[in-house]
Amino acid sequence: MIVLVNPRATRPKNRRLPLSVLALGAVLEGREEYAIVDGNVDEQPEKTVLSLIDKNPVELLGLTVMPGPQMAAAMEISRKIRALRPHVPIVWGGYFPSIYADATLNASYVDYAVRGQGENTLIELLEVVRGVRSPDSILGLSFKDRTFGMHRHNAERPMQGPDAFPWSPFHRLRVEQYLRPSFFGERTAAHHASIGCPFRCSFCGVHAAYGNRELMESPDRTVAILSHLKQTYGADSVQFYDMNFFMREDHARELAEQMLPLGMKWWCEARIDTMSRYSDATLDLLRRAGCKMIFFGAESGSDWALKEMEKGITTEQTLTVAERMQQHGIIPEFSFVIGNPRDPERDTRETLAFIRKIKTLNPASEIIMYHYTPVPQRGAMYGQIDGKINFPATLEEWATKRWMDFTLRIDPNTPWLKRKTKKLIENFETVVASRWPTVQDIAAPKWSRNLLRTLSAWRYWFRIYAFPHELRLAQRFIQLRRPKQESL
Protein backbone atom coordinates (compact mmCIF):
# COMPACT_ATOMS: atom_id res chain seq x y z
CA MET A 1 0.00 0.00 0.00
CA ILE A 2 1.02 3.60 -0.64
CA VAL A 3 -0.20 6.24 1.82
CA LEU A 4 -0.62 9.77 0.46
CA VAL A 5 -0.85 12.56 3.03
CA ASN A 6 -2.04 16.12 2.63
CA PRO A 7 -0.69 17.71 5.86
CA ARG A 8 -2.80 20.34 7.56
CA ALA A 9 -2.45 23.68 5.76
CA THR A 10 -5.50 25.68 6.75
CA ARG A 11 -8.42 26.02 9.12
CA PRO A 12 -11.26 23.53 8.56
CA LYS A 13 -13.61 26.25 7.32
CA ASN A 14 -11.13 27.15 4.54
CA ARG A 15 -10.28 23.65 3.36
CA ARG A 16 -10.52 22.84 -0.31
CA LEU A 17 -10.14 19.65 -2.34
CA PRO A 18 -6.57 18.29 -1.89
CA LEU A 19 -5.81 18.44 -5.60
CA SER A 20 -2.15 17.37 -5.36
CA VAL A 21 -2.76 14.02 -3.62
CA LEU A 22 -5.82 13.43 -5.79
CA ALA A 23 -3.58 13.80 -8.86
CA LEU A 24 -1.23 11.18 -7.45
CA GLY A 25 -4.13 8.93 -6.57
CA ALA A 26 -5.33 9.17 -10.15
CA VAL A 27 -2.22 7.41 -11.51
CA LEU A 28 -2.34 4.79 -8.74
CA GLU A 29 -6.04 4.04 -9.20
CA GLY A 30 -6.56 0.52 -10.53
CA ARG A 31 -2.87 -0.41 -10.39
CA GLU A 32 -1.82 0.03 -6.75
CA GLU A 33 -3.50 -0.14 -3.37
CA TYR A 34 -3.41 3.28 -1.76
CA ALA A 35 -5.05 5.52 0.85
CA ILE A 36 -5.42 9.28 1.17
CA VAL A 37 -5.14 11.03 4.55
CA ASP A 38 -6.07 14.72 4.67
CA GLY A 39 -4.87 16.67 7.69
CA ASN A 40 -7.36 19.45 6.90
CA VAL A 41 -10.14 16.97 7.71
CA ASP A 42 -8.52 14.37 9.95
CA GLU A 43 -7.70 15.84 13.36
CA GLN A 44 -5.19 13.05 14.08
CA PRO A 45 -3.47 12.26 10.77
CA GLU A 46 -0.45 10.67 12.46
CA LYS A 47 -2.70 8.20 14.25
CA THR A 48 -4.49 7.38 11.01
CA VAL A 49 -1.20 6.82 9.17
CA LEU A 50 0.11 4.58 11.96
CA SER A 51 -3.09 2.54 11.84
CA LEU A 52 -2.74 2.09 8.08
CA ILE A 53 0.87 0.98 8.47
CA ASP A 54 -0.03 -1.53 11.18
CA LYS A 55 -2.89 -3.03 9.18
CA ASN A 56 -1.28 -3.03 5.74
CA PRO A 57 2.13 -3.63 4.14
CA VAL A 58 2.84 0.07 3.48
CA GLU A 59 5.70 0.48 1.01
CA LEU A 60 5.86 4.26 0.82
CA LEU A 61 4.57 7.30 2.69
CA GLY A 62 4.20 10.36 0.45
CA LEU A 63 3.51 13.89 1.67
CA THR A 64 2.67 16.96 -0.42
CA VAL A 65 4.29 20.04 1.08
CA MET A 66 3.81 23.78 0.60
CA PRO A 67 5.93 26.31 2.56
CA GLY A 68 4.47 27.62 5.80
CA PRO A 69 2.01 25.78 8.07
CA GLN A 70 1.85 22.71 5.83
CA MET A 71 5.62 22.26 6.00
CA ALA A 72 5.50 22.35 9.80
CA ALA A 73 2.68 19.80 9.83
CA ALA A 74 4.59 17.58 7.38
CA MET A 75 7.62 17.69 9.67
CA GLU A 76 5.54 16.56 12.65
CA ILE A 77 4.00 13.63 10.78
CA SER A 78 7.28 12.55 9.21
CA ARG A 79 9.20 12.70 12.48
CA LYS A 80 6.62 10.62 14.31
CA ILE A 81 6.36 7.96 11.62
CA ARG A 82 10.15 7.70 11.29
CA ALA A 83 10.50 7.30 15.06
CA LEU A 84 7.72 4.72 15.44
CA ARG A 85 7.82 2.91 12.08
CA PRO A 86 11.37 3.48 10.76
CA HIS A 87 11.07 0.84 8.04
CA VAL A 88 8.65 2.95 5.94
CA PRO A 89 10.37 5.11 3.28
CA ILE A 90 9.21 8.75 3.32
CA VAL A 91 9.03 11.00 0.26
CA TRP A 92 8.11 14.68 0.08
CA GLY A 93 6.72 16.27 -3.07
CA GLY A 94 5.14 19.59 -4.00
CA TYR A 95 6.32 23.19 -4.10
CA PHE A 96 8.57 23.14 -1.02
CA PRO A 97 10.83 20.20 -1.94
CA SER A 98 10.81 21.32 -5.57
CA ILE A 99 12.47 24.60 -4.55
CA TYR A 100 14.27 23.55 -1.36
CA ALA A 101 15.37 20.00 -2.18
CA ASP A 102 18.59 20.13 -0.16
CA ALA A 103 16.89 21.50 2.95
CA THR A 104 14.29 18.74 2.59
CA LEU A 105 16.90 15.98 2.34
CA ASN A 106 18.87 17.41 5.25
CA ALA A 107 16.07 16.05 7.45
CA SER A 108 16.87 12.57 8.74
CA TYR A 109 13.23 11.56 8.36
CA VAL A 110 12.93 12.31 4.61
CA ASP A 111 14.41 9.81 2.15
CA TYR A 112 13.35 11.25 -1.20
CA ALA A 113 12.28 14.62 -2.61
CA VAL A 114 10.20 14.81 -5.78
CA ARG A 115 10.70 18.00 -7.77
CA GLY A 116 8.05 19.34 -10.12
CA GLN A 117 5.32 17.13 -11.51
CA GLY A 118 5.12 13.98 -9.41
CA GLU A 119 2.74 11.53 -11.07
CA ASN A 120 5.23 9.54 -13.16
CA THR A 121 8.03 10.07 -10.67
CA LEU A 122 5.92 8.35 -8.00
CA ILE A 123 5.21 5.34 -10.22
CA GLU A 124 8.91 4.93 -10.98
CA LEU A 125 9.91 5.49 -7.34
CA LEU A 126 7.84 2.47 -6.37
CA GLU A 127 10.22 0.38 -8.46
CA VAL A 128 13.10 1.78 -6.42
CA VAL A 129 11.58 0.89 -3.05
CA ARG A 130 10.83 -2.57 -4.44
CA GLY A 131 14.49 -2.98 -5.33
CA VAL A 132 14.13 -3.31 -9.10
CA ARG A 133 15.38 0.11 -10.17
CA SER A 134 18.14 2.54 -9.30
CA PRO A 135 17.07 5.97 -7.99
CA ASP A 136 19.60 7.76 -10.20
CA SER A 137 17.54 6.78 -13.27
CA ILE A 138 14.42 8.70 -12.25
CA LEU A 139 13.90 12.19 -13.64
CA GLY A 140 12.76 14.83 -11.16
CA LEU A 141 14.00 12.86 -8.14
CA SER A 142 16.41 14.02 -5.43
CA PHE A 143 17.72 11.47 -2.96
CA LYS A 144 20.41 10.68 -0.43
CA ASP A 145 23.42 8.84 -1.76
CA ARG A 146 24.44 7.12 1.45
CA THR A 147 27.54 5.57 -0.15
CA PHE A 148 29.16 8.95 -0.73
CA GLY A 149 27.26 10.88 1.95
CA MET A 150 25.78 13.43 -0.45
CA HIS A 151 22.53 14.53 -2.09
CA ARG A 152 21.90 13.66 -5.70
CA HIS A 153 19.56 15.70 -7.89
CA ASN A 154 18.58 13.97 -11.09
CA ALA A 155 17.73 15.90 -14.26
CA GLU A 156 14.38 17.66 -14.45
CA ARG A 157 11.34 15.75 -15.66
CA PRO A 158 9.57 17.26 -18.68
CA MET A 159 6.12 18.46 -17.75
CA GLN A 160 2.98 16.92 -19.20
CA GLY A 161 -0.40 18.61 -19.50
CA PRO A 162 -3.41 17.56 -17.41
CA ASP A 163 -4.92 15.61 -20.32
CA ALA A 164 -2.02 13.12 -20.11
CA PHE A 165 -3.32 11.80 -16.79
CA PRO A 166 -6.60 10.32 -15.52
CA TRP A 167 -9.26 12.29 -13.66
CA SER A 168 -8.96 12.82 -9.94
CA PRO A 169 -10.51 9.88 -8.02
CA PHE A 170 -13.11 12.02 -6.21
CA HIS A 171 -14.84 8.89 -4.90
CA ARG A 172 -11.90 8.38 -2.53
CA LEU A 173 -13.02 11.41 -0.49
CA ARG A 174 -16.18 12.75 1.06
CA VAL A 175 -16.27 15.57 -1.45
CA GLU A 176 -19.14 17.30 0.34
CA GLN A 177 -16.73 18.22 3.15
CA TYR A 178 -14.74 20.36 0.75
CA LEU A 179 -17.54 22.30 -0.92
CA ARG A 180 -17.49 25.34 1.33
CA PRO A 181 -19.55 28.56 1.17
CA SER A 182 -17.80 31.49 -0.46
CA PHE A 183 -18.53 34.77 -2.21
CA PHE A 184 -18.97 32.71 -5.37
CA GLY A 185 -21.51 30.19 -4.13
CA GLU A 186 -22.80 27.97 -1.34
CA ARG A 187 -20.77 24.93 -2.41
CA THR A 188 -17.50 26.07 -3.93
CA ALA A 189 -15.16 23.48 -5.44
CA ALA A 190 -11.53 23.83 -6.56
CA HIS A 191 -9.89 22.81 -9.80
CA HIS A 192 -6.51 23.08 -11.50
CA ALA A 193 -6.65 23.19 -15.30
CA SER A 194 -2.99 23.72 -16.23
CA ILE A 195 0.59 23.29 -15.09
CA GLY A 196 3.66 25.48 -15.50
CA CYS A 197 4.22 29.16 -16.22
CA PRO A 198 5.99 30.64 -19.26
CA PHE A 199 6.86 33.87 -17.47
CA ARG A 200 9.97 34.40 -15.36
CA CYS A 201 9.03 36.88 -12.64
CA SER A 202 12.22 36.97 -10.58
CA PHE A 203 10.55 36.94 -7.16
CA CYS A 204 8.47 33.81 -7.93
CA GLY A 205 9.48 30.15 -7.85
CA VAL A 206 6.59 28.64 -9.80
CA HIS A 207 8.42 28.46 -13.13
CA ALA A 208 11.45 26.98 -11.36
CA ALA A 209 9.31 24.27 -9.77
CA TYR A 210 6.88 23.46 -12.56
CA GLY A 211 8.51 24.46 -15.81
CA ASN A 212 8.58 27.47 -18.12
CA ARG A 213 5.72 26.28 -20.34
CA GLU A 214 2.07 26.37 -19.44
CA LEU A 215 0.26 23.21 -20.49
CA MET A 216 -3.52 23.64 -20.51
CA GLU A 217 -6.27 21.13 -19.93
CA SER A 218 -8.69 20.83 -22.84
CA PRO A 219 -11.98 22.74 -22.40
CA ASP A 220 -13.91 19.47 -22.94
CA ARG A 221 -12.20 17.82 -19.99
CA THR A 222 -12.46 20.88 -17.72
CA VAL A 223 -16.20 21.14 -18.31
CA ALA A 224 -16.68 17.38 -17.93
CA ILE A 225 -14.99 17.45 -14.50
CA LEU A 226 -17.00 20.47 -13.36
CA SER A 227 -20.21 18.84 -14.59
CA HIS A 228 -19.34 15.75 -12.55
CA LEU A 229 -18.72 17.84 -9.42
CA LYS A 230 -22.02 19.65 -9.94
CA GLN A 231 -24.20 16.66 -10.75
CA THR A 232 -22.66 14.21 -8.28
CA TYR A 233 -21.81 16.43 -5.34
CA GLY A 234 -23.85 19.60 -5.81
CA ALA A 235 -21.01 22.04 -6.52
CA ASP A 236 -22.37 25.41 -7.65
CA SER A 237 -19.14 27.40 -8.04
CA VAL A 238 -15.42 26.86 -8.50
CA GLN A 239 -12.06 28.47 -7.86
CA PHE A 240 -9.43 27.76 -10.51
CA TYR A 241 -5.95 27.67 -9.00
CA ASP A 242 -3.98 28.00 -12.25
CA MET A 243 -1.22 30.59 -12.33
CA ASN A 244 -2.48 31.94 -15.66
CA PHE A 245 -5.97 30.72 -16.45
CA PHE A 246 -6.26 32.76 -19.65
CA MET A 247 -3.21 32.19 -21.82
CA ARG A 248 -4.93 32.26 -25.20
CA GLU A 249 -8.09 34.12 -26.12
CA ASP A 250 -9.38 31.35 -28.40
CA HIS A 251 -9.00 28.81 -25.58
CA ALA A 252 -10.74 31.17 -23.15
CA ARG A 253 -13.68 31.66 -25.51
CA GLU A 254 -14.06 27.94 -26.16
CA LEU A 255 -14.03 27.18 -22.43
CA ALA A 256 -16.47 30.00 -21.61
CA GLU A 257 -18.90 28.87 -24.29
CA GLN A 258 -18.89 25.33 -22.87
CA MET A 259 -19.28 26.59 -19.29
CA LEU A 260 -22.33 28.74 -20.07
CA PRO A 261 -24.86 25.90 -19.53
CA LEU A 262 -23.30 24.96 -16.17
CA GLY A 263 -24.47 28.16 -14.50
CA MET A 264 -21.49 28.09 -12.11
CA LYS A 265 -19.84 31.23 -10.71
CA TRP A 266 -16.06 31.15 -10.66
CA TRP A 267 -12.76 32.81 -9.71
CA CYS A 268 -9.40 32.49 -11.46
CA GLU A 269 -5.98 34.08 -11.91
CA ALA A 270 -4.78 35.84 -15.04
CA ARG A 271 -1.99 37.98 -16.49
CA ILE A 272 -2.62 41.71 -16.76
CA ASP A 273 -0.96 42.05 -20.16
CA THR A 274 -2.93 39.11 -21.53
CA MET A 275 -6.31 40.36 -20.35
CA SER A 276 -5.63 43.93 -21.46
CA ARG A 277 -5.62 42.64 -25.04
CA TYR A 278 -8.83 40.59 -24.89
CA SER A 279 -11.74 41.88 -26.95
CA ASP A 280 -14.87 43.32 -25.37
CA ALA A 281 -16.84 40.40 -26.80
CA THR A 282 -14.60 37.88 -25.00
CA LEU A 283 -14.76 39.72 -21.68
CA ASP A 284 -18.54 39.88 -21.94
CA LEU A 285 -18.65 36.14 -22.71
CA LEU A 286 -16.49 35.38 -19.65
CA ARG A 287 -18.88 37.31 -17.41
CA ARG A 288 -21.93 35.54 -18.87
CA ALA A 289 -20.16 32.19 -18.40
CA GLY A 290 -19.91 32.88 -14.66
CA CYS A 291 -16.57 34.64 -14.20
CA LYS A 292 -17.13 36.80 -11.13
CA MET A 293 -13.62 37.78 -10.05
CA ILE A 294 -10.11 37.57 -11.51
CA PHE A 295 -6.90 37.73 -9.49
CA PHE A 296 -4.10 39.76 -11.11
CA GLY A 297 -0.47 40.04 -10.02
CA ALA A 298 -0.04 43.81 -10.41
CA GLU A 299 3.00 43.62 -8.08
CA SER A 300 4.07 47.30 -8.16
CA GLY A 301 2.94 50.78 -9.07
CA SER A 302 6.41 51.54 -10.44
CA ASP A 303 7.37 50.64 -14.00
CA TRP A 304 11.05 50.53 -13.05
CA ALA A 305 10.26 47.99 -10.31
CA LEU A 306 8.19 45.88 -12.69
CA LYS A 307 11.17 45.81 -15.03
CA GLU A 308 13.44 44.77 -12.16
CA MET A 309 11.04 41.90 -11.39
CA GLU A 310 11.00 40.84 -15.04
CA LYS A 311 7.23 40.95 -14.71
CA GLY A 312 6.58 41.87 -18.32
CA ILE A 313 3.69 44.25 -17.63
CA THR A 314 3.27 48.02 -17.25
CA THR A 315 1.31 50.14 -14.81
CA GLU A 316 -0.68 51.51 -17.75
CA GLN A 317 -1.86 47.99 -18.57
CA THR A 318 -2.98 47.54 -14.96
CA LEU A 319 -5.08 50.69 -15.13
CA THR A 320 -6.54 49.54 -18.43
CA VAL A 321 -7.56 46.21 -16.91
CA ALA A 322 -9.08 47.91 -13.86
CA GLU A 323 -11.23 50.09 -16.11
CA ARG A 324 -12.23 47.30 -18.49
CA MET A 325 -13.16 44.92 -15.67
CA GLN A 326 -15.53 47.58 -14.32
CA GLN A 327 -17.10 48.00 -17.75
CA HIS A 328 -17.77 44.27 -18.03
CA GLY A 329 -18.94 43.61 -14.46
CA ILE A 330 -15.98 41.46 -13.34
CA ILE A 331 -14.24 42.29 -10.06
CA PRO A 332 -10.44 42.60 -10.38
CA GLU A 333 -8.35 41.46 -7.43
CA PHE A 334 -4.93 43.13 -7.61
CA SER A 335 -1.99 41.78 -5.64
CA PHE A 336 1.09 43.90 -4.85
CA VAL A 337 4.49 42.88 -3.46
CA ILE A 338 5.91 46.09 -2.04
CA GLY A 339 9.44 47.00 -1.00
CA ASN A 340 11.65 46.32 -4.01
CA PRO A 341 15.24 45.77 -2.77
CA ARG A 342 16.65 48.26 -5.30
CA ASP A 343 14.81 51.22 -3.74
CA PRO A 344 12.14 50.06 -1.24
CA GLU A 345 11.16 53.56 -0.10
CA ARG A 346 10.52 54.78 -3.64
CA ASP A 347 8.71 51.58 -4.61
CA THR A 348 6.49 51.86 -1.54
CA ARG A 349 5.70 55.52 -2.10
CA GLU A 350 4.85 55.05 -5.78
CA THR A 351 2.87 51.85 -5.27
CA LEU A 352 0.65 53.28 -2.53
CA ALA A 353 -0.12 56.25 -4.78
CA PHE A 354 -0.85 53.85 -7.64
CA ILE A 355 -3.29 51.85 -5.51
CA ARG A 356 -5.16 55.08 -4.79
CA LYS A 357 -5.32 55.69 -8.55
CA ILE A 358 -6.80 52.22 -9.11
CA LYS A 359 -9.41 52.82 -6.42
CA THR A 360 -10.39 56.11 -8.04
CA LEU A 361 -10.72 54.42 -11.41
CA ASN A 362 -12.52 51.29 -10.16
CA PRO A 363 -13.55 51.36 -6.48
CA ALA A 364 -14.71 47.72 -6.67
CA SER A 365 -11.11 46.58 -7.18
CA GLU A 366 -9.93 44.25 -4.41
CA ILE A 367 -6.44 45.06 -3.12
CA ILE A 368 -4.04 42.53 -1.56
CA MET A 369 -0.68 43.74 -0.27
CA TYR A 370 2.44 41.77 0.65
CA HIS A 371 5.97 42.68 1.61
CA TYR A 372 8.49 41.78 -1.07
CA THR A 373 9.88 38.31 -0.23
CA PRO A 374 11.96 36.54 -2.89
CA VAL A 375 12.64 32.83 -3.26
CA PRO A 376 16.15 31.45 -3.85
CA GLN A 377 16.69 31.05 -7.58
CA ARG A 378 18.76 32.36 -10.42
CA GLY A 379 17.68 35.69 -11.84
CA ALA A 380 18.29 39.42 -11.72
CA MET A 381 16.45 40.05 -8.48
CA TYR A 382 18.04 37.15 -6.65
CA GLY A 383 21.43 38.33 -7.80
CA GLN A 384 20.76 41.70 -6.18
CA ILE A 385 19.89 40.18 -2.81
CA ASP A 386 22.58 37.52 -2.85
CA GLY A 387 24.55 37.86 0.36
CA LYS A 388 21.77 39.82 2.08
CA ILE A 389 19.63 36.76 2.78
CA ASN A 390 20.96 33.37 3.78
CA PHE A 391 18.12 30.96 3.23
CA PRO A 392 17.76 28.11 5.77
CA ALA A 393 19.54 24.84 5.11
CA THR A 394 17.31 22.76 7.40
CA LEU A 395 13.60 22.18 7.87
CA GLU A 396 13.95 23.01 11.54
CA GLU A 397 15.16 26.53 10.70
CA TRP A 398 12.41 26.96 8.11
CA ALA A 399 9.92 26.12 10.88
CA THR A 400 11.11 28.91 13.19
CA LYS A 401 8.90 31.96 13.62
CA ARG A 402 11.33 34.19 11.74
CA TRP A 403 11.20 32.04 8.60
CA MET A 404 7.55 31.10 8.88
CA ASP A 405 6.76 34.83 8.92
CA PHE A 406 9.06 35.30 5.92
CA THR A 407 7.31 32.51 4.01
CA LEU A 408 3.85 33.88 4.82
CA ARG A 409 4.95 37.49 4.18
CA ILE A 410 3.58 38.50 7.57
CA ASP A 411 6.75 40.12 8.92
CA PRO A 412 9.55 39.04 6.58
CA ASN A 413 12.18 41.15 8.32
CA THR A 414 14.10 41.68 5.10
CA PRO A 415 17.31 43.68 5.62
CA TRP A 416 16.55 46.28 2.94
CA LEU A 417 13.09 47.27 4.27
CA LYS A 418 13.26 49.92 6.99
CA ARG A 419 10.94 49.54 9.93
CA LYS A 420 9.15 52.83 9.21
CA THR A 421 8.55 51.79 5.58
CA LYS A 422 7.18 48.44 6.67
CA LYS A 423 4.83 50.16 9.13
CA LEU A 424 3.64 52.53 6.40
CA ILE A 425 2.71 49.57 4.19
CA GLU A 426 0.85 47.86 7.03
CA ASN A 427 -0.97 51.01 8.11
CA PHE A 428 -2.00 51.85 4.55
CA GLU A 429 -3.31 48.30 4.12
CA THR A 430 -5.39 48.68 7.30
CA VAL A 431 -6.92 51.93 6.06
CA VAL A 432 -7.70 50.60 2.58
CA ALA A 433 -9.17 47.34 3.95
CA SER A 434 -11.45 49.41 6.19
CA ARG A 435 -12.41 51.94 3.55
CA TRP A 436 -13.35 49.10 1.15
CA PRO A 437 -14.06 45.90 3.14
CA THR A 438 -13.61 42.89 0.90
CA VAL A 439 -16.75 41.65 -0.82
CA GLN A 440 -15.47 38.12 -0.16
CA ASP A 441 -16.37 38.44 3.52
CA ILE A 442 -19.81 36.85 3.19
CA ALA A 443 -20.33 36.74 6.96
CA ALA A 444 -19.85 40.47 7.62
CA PRO A 445 -23.17 42.26 8.25
CA LYS A 446 -23.97 45.51 6.47
CA TRP A 447 -23.62 47.60 9.63
CA SER A 448 -20.02 46.42 10.12
CA ARG A 449 -19.04 47.45 6.62
CA ASN A 450 -20.64 50.86 7.11
CA LEU A 451 -18.83 51.30 10.42
CA LEU A 452 -15.44 50.55 8.89
CA ARG A 453 -16.08 52.84 5.94
CA THR A 454 -17.10 55.70 8.22
CA LEU A 455 -14.16 55.28 10.61
CA SER A 456 -11.61 55.17 7.79
CA ALA A 457 -13.02 57.83 5.45
CA TRP A 458 -11.19 60.80 6.96
CA ARG A 459 -7.87 58.93 7.09
CA TYR A 460 -8.06 57.94 3.46
CA TRP A 461 -9.20 61.39 2.33
CA PHE A 462 -6.40 63.25 4.17
CA ARG A 463 -3.78 60.48 3.62
CA ILE A 464 -3.24 60.03 7.35
CA TYR A 465 -2.24 56.40 7.79
CA ALA A 466 -0.17 56.43 10.99
CA PHE A 467 -1.40 54.74 14.16
CA PRO A 468 -4.78 53.44 12.88
CA HIS A 469 -5.52 51.86 16.26
CA GLU A 470 -9.26 52.48 16.05
CA LEU A 471 -9.44 50.64 12.72
CA ARG A 472 -7.49 47.64 13.96
CA LEU A 473 -9.70 47.49 17.05
CA ALA A 474 -12.81 47.64 14.87
CA GLN A 475 -11.44 44.96 12.53
CA ARG A 476 -10.79 42.64 15.46
CA PHE A 477 -14.26 43.28 16.89
CA ILE A 478 -15.89 42.63 13.53
CA GLN A 479 -13.46 39.78 12.74
CA LEU A 480 -12.88 41.20 9.29
CA ARG A 481 -11.91 38.53 6.81
CA ARG A 482 -8.53 38.87 5.10
CA PRO A 483 -8.34 36.81 1.89
CA LYS A 484 -4.54 36.66 1.88
CA GLN A 485 -4.47 35.01 5.35
CA GLU A 486 -6.96 32.22 4.67
CA SER A 487 -4.27 29.60 5.03
CA LEU A 488 -3.37 30.62 8.58
UniProtKB/TrEMBL annotation:
PROSITE patterns (UniProt xref): B12_BINDING, RADICAL_SAM
A GO molecular-function descriptor: 4 iron, 4 sulfur cluster binding
SUPFAM superfamilies reported for this sequence: Cobalamin (vitamin B12)-binding domain, Radical SAM enzymes
Lineage: Bacteria, Pseudomonadati, Acidobacteriota, Terriglobia, Terriglobales
Pfam families hit by this protein: B12-binding (PF02310), Radical_SAM (PF04055)
CDD domains: Radical_SAM (cd01335), radical_SAM_B12_BD (cd02068)
Protein name (database record): Fe-S protein, radical SAM family
Domain Radical SAM core: 183-413
Cofactor: [4Fe-4S] cluster
Top-level division of the source organism's lineage: Bacteria
Coiled-coil ranges per UniProt: none
Alphabetical list of PANTHER family matching this protein: ANAEROBIC MAGNESIUM-PROTOPORPHYRIN IX MONOMETHYL ESTER CYCLASE-RELATED, BLL1977 PROTEIN
Domain B12-binding stretches: 4-136
Keywords: Iron, Iron-sulfur, Metal-binding, Methyltransferase, S-adenosyl-L-methionine, Transferase
Residues spanning the membrane: none
